[in-house]
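A quick aside before the break. I want you to see a complete sequence-to-structure record at least once, exactly as it would be stored in a machine-readable document. Don't worry about memorizing anything.
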Amino acid sequence: MTTKRKFFLAISAILGVVAFGTIGLKLITHLSLFDCFFFTLYTITTVGYSELPQMDTGAKVFTTFLIVLGVGTIGYAFSTALKAVVESELISTFGKRKMFKDISKLSNHYIVCGAGRVGSRVIEEITRHGHDFVVIESNEQAAERLLARGYFVLMGDATDDDVLKAAGIERARGLVCAVSSDPDNLYITLTVRDINKDIMIVSRANDESAIKRLHKAGANKVVSPAITGSNQMAQMLLRPAVADFIELATMTEELELEMEQISISSDSPFVNRALKDTGIRSDHDVIVIAIKRANGEMIFNPSADTLIEESDALVAIGSHDSLEGLERRANPLHPKGMKTKRG
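That is the input. The structure line, written in C-alpha coordinates, reads:
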Protein backbone atom coordinates (compact mmCIF):
# COMPACT_ATOMS: atom_id res chain seq x y z
CA MET A 1 0.00 0.00 0.00
CA THR A 2 1.37 3.41 -0.96
CA THR A 3 2.05 6.17 1.56
CA LYS A 4 -0.68 8.38 0.08
CA ARG A 5 -3.23 5.58 0.39
CA LYS A 6 -2.29 4.96 4.02
CA PHE A 7 -2.76 8.65 4.82
CA PHE A 8 -6.08 8.67 3.00
CA LEU A 9 -7.34 5.67 4.95
CA ALA A 10 -6.20 7.18 8.27
CA ILE A 11 -7.97 10.49 7.62
CA SER A 12 -11.05 8.66 6.32
CA ALA A 13 -11.23 6.59 9.52
CA ILE A 14 -11.16 9.70 11.74
CA LEU A 15 -13.76 11.51 9.63
CA GLY A 16 -15.92 8.39 9.68
CA VAL A 17 -15.88 8.24 13.50
CA VAL A 18 -16.70 11.99 13.76
CA ALA A 19 -19.62 11.59 11.34
CA PHE A 20 -20.84 8.48 13.16
CA GLY A 21 -20.75 10.23 16.56
CA THR A 22 -22.40 13.41 15.30
CA ILE A 23 -25.28 11.62 13.61
CA GLY A 24 -25.72 9.18 16.51
CA LEU A 25 -25.95 11.92 19.13
CA LYS A 26 -28.34 13.88 16.93
CA LEU A 27 -30.69 10.89 16.79
CA ILE A 28 -30.45 10.16 20.54
CA THR A 29 -30.47 13.71 21.94
CA HIS A 30 -32.31 16.90 21.04
CA LEU A 31 -29.15 19.00 20.65
CA SER A 32 -28.27 20.97 17.55
CA LEU A 33 -26.12 19.36 14.88
CA PHE A 34 -23.18 21.61 15.74
CA ASP A 35 -23.40 20.74 19.44
CA CYS A 36 -23.41 17.06 18.56
CA PHE A 37 -20.37 17.58 16.33
CA PHE A 38 -18.57 19.56 19.04
CA PHE A 39 -19.34 16.98 21.74
CA THR A 40 -18.13 14.17 19.44
CA LEU A 41 -14.81 15.96 18.90
CA TYR A 42 -13.99 16.48 22.56
CA THR A 43 -15.20 12.98 23.38
CA ILE A 44 -12.96 11.09 20.95
CA THR A 45 -10.03 13.41 21.70
CA THR A 46 -10.49 12.76 25.46
CA VAL A 47 -10.34 16.49 26.28
CA GLY A 48 -12.52 15.84 29.30
CA TYR A 49 -15.33 18.41 29.28
CA SER A 50 -18.46 17.74 31.37
CA GLU A 51 -21.20 15.57 29.95
CA LEU A 52 -24.09 16.97 27.97
CA PRO A 53 -27.14 18.19 29.91
CA GLN A 54 -30.11 15.84 30.25
CA MET A 55 -28.20 12.76 29.13
CA ASP A 56 -30.27 9.62 29.54
CA THR A 57 -28.98 6.06 29.81
CA GLY A 58 -29.07 5.53 26.03
CA ALA A 59 -26.97 8.63 25.42
CA LYS A 60 -24.44 7.55 28.06
CA VAL A 61 -24.15 4.07 26.54
CA PHE A 62 -23.65 5.56 23.07
CA THR A 63 -21.06 8.02 24.44
CA THR A 64 -19.16 5.18 26.13
CA PHE A 65 -19.07 3.26 22.87
CA LEU A 66 -18.01 6.43 21.05
CA ILE A 67 -15.12 7.01 23.48
CA VAL A 68 -13.76 3.47 22.96
CA LEU A 69 -14.26 3.63 19.18
CA GLY A 70 -12.88 7.15 18.84
CA VAL A 71 -9.77 6.69 20.98
CA GLY A 72 -8.99 3.39 19.25
CA THR A 73 -9.51 4.84 15.78
CA ILE A 74 -7.46 7.98 16.41
CA GLY A 75 -4.67 5.95 17.96
CA TYR A 76 -4.62 3.58 15.01
CA ALA A 77 -4.85 6.42 12.50
CA PHE A 78 -1.95 8.34 14.01
CA SER A 79 0.21 5.23 14.32
CA THR A 80 -0.55 4.32 10.70
CA ALA A 81 0.25 7.85 9.54
CA LEU A 82 3.49 7.92 11.54
CA LYS A 83 4.49 4.51 10.22
CA ALA A 84 3.75 5.64 6.68
CA VAL A 85 5.94 8.73 7.10
CA VAL A 86 8.82 6.72 8.57
CA GLU A 87 8.56 4.05 5.87
CA SER A 88 8.39 6.70 3.17
CA GLU A 89 11.49 8.45 4.48
CA LEU A 90 13.39 5.16 4.83
CA ILE A 91 12.39 3.99 1.36
CA SER A 92 13.19 7.39 -0.11
CA THR A 93 16.58 7.60 1.63
CA PHE A 94 17.73 4.06 0.93
CA GLY A 95 16.15 4.10 -2.52
CA LYS A 96 18.06 7.23 -3.46
CA ARG A 97 21.27 5.83 -2.04
CA LYS A 98 20.83 2.65 -4.05
CA MET A 99 20.02 4.61 -7.19
CA PHE A 100 23.08 6.85 -6.78
CA LYS A 101 25.17 3.75 -6.18
CA ASP A 102 23.78 2.11 -9.32
CA ILE A 103 24.30 5.28 -11.39
CA SER A 104 27.90 5.49 -10.19
CA LYS A 105 28.47 2.05 -11.75
CA LEU A 106 27.21 3.16 -15.16
CA SER A 107 29.69 3.81 -17.94
CA ASN A 108 29.29 4.52 -21.64
CA HIS A 109 25.65 5.40 -20.97
CA TYR A 110 23.34 8.18 -22.16
CA ILE A 111 21.95 11.16 -20.29
CA VAL A 112 18.63 12.80 -21.21
CA CYS A 113 18.03 16.31 -19.88
CA GLY A 114 14.31 17.00 -19.82
CA ALA A 115 11.48 14.47 -20.06
CA GLY A 116 8.87 16.55 -21.83
CA ARG A 117 7.30 15.60 -25.16
CA VAL A 118 10.62 15.50 -26.99
CA GLY A 119 12.61 13.97 -24.15
CA SER A 120 9.99 11.26 -23.56
CA ARG A 121 10.27 10.08 -27.16
CA VAL A 122 14.05 10.00 -26.86
CA ILE A 123 13.72 7.90 -23.69
CA GLU A 124 11.38 5.47 -25.45
CA GLU A 125 13.83 5.04 -28.33
CA ILE A 126 16.83 4.49 -26.04
CA THR A 127 14.81 2.01 -24.00
CA ARG A 128 13.72 0.17 -27.15
CA HIS A 129 17.37 -0.35 -28.08
CA GLY A 130 18.20 -1.48 -24.55
CA HIS A 131 20.91 1.06 -23.69
CA ASP A 132 21.62 2.37 -20.19
CA PHE A 133 20.57 5.95 -19.50
CA VAL A 134 19.92 8.51 -16.79
CA VAL A 135 17.18 11.14 -16.94
CA ILE A 136 17.55 14.59 -15.38
CA GLU A 137 14.15 16.17 -14.79
CA SER A 138 13.15 19.18 -12.69
CA ASN A 139 9.40 18.47 -12.72
CA GLU A 140 8.51 16.32 -9.71
CA GLN A 141 5.46 14.66 -11.29
CA ALA A 142 7.36 13.75 -14.45
CA ALA A 143 10.27 12.43 -12.38
CA GLU A 144 7.96 10.29 -10.21
CA ARG A 145 6.30 8.87 -13.31
CA LEU A 146 9.66 7.81 -14.75
CA LEU A 147 10.85 6.42 -11.42
CA ALA A 148 7.72 4.27 -11.26
CA ARG A 149 8.77 2.73 -14.59
CA GLY A 150 12.11 1.73 -13.09
CA TYR A 151 14.32 4.29 -14.83
CA PHE A 152 17.31 6.07 -13.31
CA VAL A 153 16.05 9.61 -12.64
CA LEU A 154 17.71 12.56 -10.94
CA MET A 155 15.28 15.30 -9.97
CA GLY A 156 17.13 18.56 -10.35
CA ASP A 157 18.34 21.28 -12.67
CA ALA A 158 20.42 20.02 -15.58
CA THR A 159 22.27 23.35 -15.65
CA ASP A 160 23.80 22.45 -12.28
CA ASP A 161 27.30 20.95 -12.52
CA ASP A 162 26.72 18.75 -9.46
CA VAL A 163 23.57 17.22 -10.96
CA LEU A 164 25.36 16.48 -14.24
CA LYS A 165 28.27 14.89 -12.39
CA ALA A 166 25.85 12.82 -10.29
CA ALA A 167 24.42 11.51 -13.58
CA GLY A 168 27.95 10.38 -14.55
CA ILE A 169 28.63 12.97 -17.22
CA GLU A 170 32.37 12.18 -17.17
CA ARG A 171 31.67 8.54 -18.09
CA ALA A 172 28.71 9.05 -20.44
CA ARG A 173 28.90 8.43 -24.19
CA GLY A 174 26.13 10.81 -25.17
CA LEU A 175 23.77 13.50 -23.88
CA VAL A 176 20.49 14.91 -25.16
CA CYS A 177 19.51 18.48 -24.23
CA ALA A 178 15.74 18.36 -24.57
CA VAL A 179 14.56 21.02 -22.12
CA SER A 180 12.04 23.53 -23.42
CA SER A 181 14.27 26.60 -23.03
CA ASP A 182 16.92 27.40 -25.65
CA PRO A 183 19.07 29.39 -23.15
CA ASP A 184 19.02 26.36 -20.79
CA ASN A 185 19.99 24.02 -23.63
CA LEU A 186 22.80 26.39 -24.54
CA TYR A 187 24.10 26.55 -20.96
CA ILE A 188 23.86 22.77 -20.53
CA THR A 189 25.77 22.25 -23.77
CA LEU A 190 28.53 24.64 -22.69
CA THR A 191 28.81 23.03 -19.26
CA VAL A 192 28.83 19.45 -20.56
CA ARG A 193 31.39 20.20 -23.26
CA ASP A 194 33.63 21.78 -20.63
CA ILE A 195 33.40 18.69 -18.40
CA ASN A 196 33.60 16.01 -21.09
CA LYS A 197 35.42 16.91 -24.32
CA ASP A 198 34.58 13.64 -26.09
CA ILE A 199 30.88 13.19 -25.31
CA MET A 200 28.32 13.24 -28.11
CA ILE A 201 25.88 16.11 -27.54
CA VAL A 202 22.55 16.34 -29.34
CA SER A 203 20.64 19.50 -28.48
CA ARG A 204 17.14 20.71 -29.13
CA ALA A 205 16.56 24.17 -30.65
CA ASN A 206 13.11 25.71 -30.50
CA ASP A 207 14.17 28.86 -32.31
CA GLU A 208 16.06 28.61 -35.60
CA SER A 209 18.41 31.37 -34.47
CA ALA A 210 19.64 29.15 -31.61
CA ILE A 211 21.00 26.46 -33.95
CA LYS A 212 24.31 28.23 -34.73
CA ARG A 213 24.80 29.19 -31.07
CA LEU A 214 24.35 25.60 -29.92
CA HIS A 215 26.86 24.37 -32.50
CA LYS A 216 29.37 26.97 -31.33
CA ALA A 217 28.71 25.96 -27.71
CA GLY A 218 29.83 22.42 -28.50
CA ALA A 219 26.77 20.50 -29.67
CA ASN A 220 27.61 17.81 -32.22
CA LYS A 221 24.09 17.84 -33.59
CA VAL A 222 21.23 20.30 -33.20
CA VAL A 223 17.65 19.30 -33.91
CA SER A 224 14.80 21.74 -34.35
CA PRO A 225 11.47 19.92 -33.98
CA ALA A 226 9.76 22.58 -36.11
CA ILE A 227 12.25 22.30 -38.99
CA THR A 228 12.49 18.50 -38.79
CA GLY A 229 8.72 18.14 -38.69
CA SER A 230 8.16 20.46 -41.64
CA ASN A 231 10.86 18.70 -43.70
CA GLN A 232 9.30 15.32 -42.94
CA MET A 233 5.88 16.58 -43.98
CA ALA A 234 7.34 17.92 -47.25
CA GLN A 235 9.07 14.57 -47.91
CA MET A 236 5.81 12.70 -47.33
CA LEU A 237 4.07 15.03 -49.77
CA LEU A 238 6.72 15.13 -52.52
CA ARG A 239 8.52 11.79 -52.09
CA PRO A 240 6.13 9.43 -50.27
CA ALA A 241 8.05 6.26 -51.20
CA VAL A 242 11.29 7.68 -49.78
CA ALA A 243 9.50 8.85 -46.64
CA ASP A 244 7.91 5.41 -46.20
CA PHE A 245 11.28 3.69 -46.51
CA ILE A 246 12.93 5.98 -43.95
CA GLU A 247 10.00 5.48 -41.58
CA LEU A 248 10.12 1.70 -41.93
CA ALA A 249 13.90 1.64 -41.54
CA THR A 250 13.77 3.55 -38.27
CA MET A 251 10.48 2.25 -36.79
CA THR A 252 11.20 -1.40 -36.03
CA GLU A 253 7.69 -2.03 -34.74
CA GLU A 254 6.53 -1.92 -38.36
CA LEU A 255 9.35 -3.97 -39.94
CA GLU A 256 12.10 -6.29 -38.72
CA LEU A 257 14.73 -3.86 -39.92
CA GLU A 258 17.06 -1.46 -38.17
CA MET A 259 19.53 1.17 -39.20
CA GLU A 260 22.61 1.08 -36.97
CA GLN A 261 26.03 2.68 -36.66
CA ILE A 262 28.94 0.25 -36.31
CA SER A 263 32.07 1.95 -34.99
CA ILE A 264 35.41 0.48 -36.06
CA SER A 265 38.06 0.36 -33.33
CA SER A 266 41.82 0.17 -33.91
CA ASP A 267 41.92 -3.58 -33.22
CA SER A 268 38.97 -4.42 -35.48
CA PRO A 269 39.65 -7.20 -38.05
CA PHE A 270 37.97 -4.97 -40.66
CA VAL A 271 40.65 -2.24 -40.53
CA ASN A 272 42.45 -1.74 -43.88
CA ARG A 273 40.25 -4.33 -45.57
CA ALA A 274 38.05 -3.74 -48.60
CA LEU A 275 34.33 -3.88 -47.98
CA LYS A 276 34.01 -6.89 -50.30
CA ASP A 277 36.53 -8.88 -48.22
CA THR A 278 34.79 -8.44 -44.86
CA GLY A 279 31.87 -10.79 -45.50
CA ILE A 280 29.46 -8.21 -44.06
CA ARG A 281 26.88 -8.80 -46.81
CA SER A 282 27.34 -12.55 -47.28
CA ASP A 283 27.88 -13.61 -43.65
CA HIS A 284 25.56 -11.22 -41.81
CA ASP A 285 23.02 -10.20 -44.48
CA VAL A 286 23.70 -6.56 -43.65
CA ILE A 287 23.93 -3.72 -46.16
CA VAL A 288 26.42 -0.88 -45.61
CA ILE A 289 24.82 2.23 -47.07
CA ALA A 290 27.43 4.75 -45.94
CA ILE A 291 30.81 5.09 -44.26
CA LYS A 292 31.68 8.09 -42.13
CA ARG A 293 35.40 8.77 -41.86
CA ALA A 294 37.11 10.06 -38.73
CA ASN A 295 37.61 13.45 -40.42
CA GLY A 296 33.86 13.79 -40.97
CA GLU A 297 33.82 12.76 -44.64
CA MET A 298 30.70 10.79 -45.54
CA ILE A 299 30.90 8.18 -48.29
CA PHE A 300 27.44 7.26 -49.51
CA ASN A 301 26.81 3.92 -51.23
CA PRO A 302 30.46 2.81 -50.87
CA SER A 303 31.80 0.51 -53.57
CA ALA A 304 32.96 -3.03 -52.84
CA ASP A 305 36.59 -1.88 -53.13
CA THR A 306 36.23 0.85 -50.47
CA LEU A 307 38.78 0.34 -47.67
CA ILE A 308 37.55 0.41 -44.07
CA GLU A 309 39.79 2.56 -41.90
CA GLU A 310 40.32 2.88 -38.17
CA SER A 311 37.67 5.01 -36.40
CA ASP A 312 35.25 4.68 -39.31
CA ALA A 313 31.54 4.45 -38.62
CA LEU A 314 29.61 2.06 -40.83
CA VAL A 315 25.99 3.01 -41.38
CA ALA A 316 24.28 -0.32 -41.95
CA ILE A 317 20.79 -1.74 -42.42
CA GLY A 318 19.72 -5.20 -41.31
CA SER A 319 17.82 -7.14 -38.69
CA HIS A 320 18.59 -6.58 -35.02
CA ASP A 321 20.28 -9.97 -34.62
CA SER A 322 22.36 -9.50 -37.79
CA LEU A 323 23.54 -6.07 -36.70
CA GLU A 324 24.32 -7.36 -33.24
CA GLY A 325 26.41 -10.18 -34.71
CA LEU A 326 28.23 -7.74 -36.98
CA GLU A 327 28.95 -5.48 -34.02
CA ARG A 328 30.55 -8.34 -32.09
CA ARG A 329 32.62 -9.38 -35.09
CA ALA A 330 33.71 -5.85 -35.97
CA ASN A 331 34.88 -5.09 -32.42
CA PRO A 332 35.57 -8.41 -30.66
CA LEU A 333 37.63 -6.79 -27.91
CA HIS A 334 35.68 -3.55 -27.43
CA PRO A 335 32.06 -4.10 -28.47
CA LYS A 336 29.79 -1.19 -27.74
CA GLY A 337 27.18 -3.76 -26.75
CA MET A 338 23.96 -3.48 -28.68
CA LYS A 339 21.55 -4.83 -26.08
CA THR A 340 18.44 -6.82 -26.47
CA LYS A 341 15.19 -4.92 -26.31
CA ARG A 342 13.98 -4.52 -22.74
CA GLY A 343 10.46 -5.44 -21.77
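Two observations worth writing down. DSSP finds twelve helices and twelve strands in the chain. The mean pLDDT is 81. We'll return to this after the break.
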